[in-house]
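Troubleshooting log. The previous structure file for this entry was overwritten by mistake, so regenerating from the original sequence record. Sequence copied from the archived sheet and checked twice against the printout by T.R.
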Amino acid sequence: MENHEAVNPLHADVLPRLDSAFVELYNKNLAHIPPRAPDLALLRKIYSTQYSYATAPAPECEQTEEEVDGWERYPGKIKIRIYLPHGTAPTQGWPVHFDFHGGGWGLGDLETEAHICRHICTKASCVVVDVDYRLIPEHPFPTAIYDCFTVLKHIISEPKRYNINPSILTLGGLSAGANIALIINHLARDHSPQIPIRAVIAGTPVLADISSITSPDQSPYPSMVENANAPTLNWMRLKWFDNLKSSSLAAHDTPERAQQEKDISWFRDAFTAPNYKNLADLTFIGTAACDPLRSEGEAYGKLLSENGNRVVVKRYPGVPHPFQHMDAILPQAKEFIDDACAYIRNSQAVQG
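Regenerated output below.
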């Protein structure tokens, strides 16, 4: 796993399926980077700005930041950023959307999806709460998931303070953040009292457990083989993230590890949840054609639909995993953002 970045040049088996605009963008900005082993500190430093050359300006909106309590299992404060829409709030408060950023549970911060948050806040006229959850390996998986659910419960418990209407609630995120949103969809349904979710917007979600497989051809998902050498996210990078997740846990055969495994439960693999019925009013899953995670995202959408949920799955052609950050160049990225805003806005009219 020494040199696994899919660069210099784009791999021959995926090149014909990539949009020419992405190929030009990649060759201009990334292909000169020599293959190298991942450096967690460096990746964290550049992660939220690494595609800034391809990110379009987003609408400005007022924002505030504060610190709130994270998951009580591992006490600590986490930052949240609250985006406020323009205009006068409805009588019962603004609709509220929670964003959980991507980054494989080990990367990312409040800047990672800031441009998407601003689009949603403005175009869907809602408060957006972005959560700077705690990362692996310093904090054991699934601290991030419980941090995000803890923040959600805190915010909706104080609707007057945050000027929100908690009955008009949506969730979303990209990659690992999409995973968090889809899992919280279950936690909200099972909470007492139930927390109704109007919509979940899941962009290129990571869902399946790959800890027990050592090569992409052992995966049941075709895109894992088709896109094993895809740019920006490939098989080896997925395994690196998975190893990072494993390294966040205590040693086997210790009481601490036993508790951690209990905490993880079915979160290790979203296809093993005990119940898929009566989830959000709508789940939108956007996949990327040249993403190794494409097939599992689409399979998960089918699973939700088969269990009676309203689901929309849309595949964006010619693009790899993190395409949503490249909306200045890629029409598919702009389309995803517009789709997300439209589904959130439309969900606000659903009668509860």
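The chain has a mean pLDDT of 95. Archived copy saved in two places this time.
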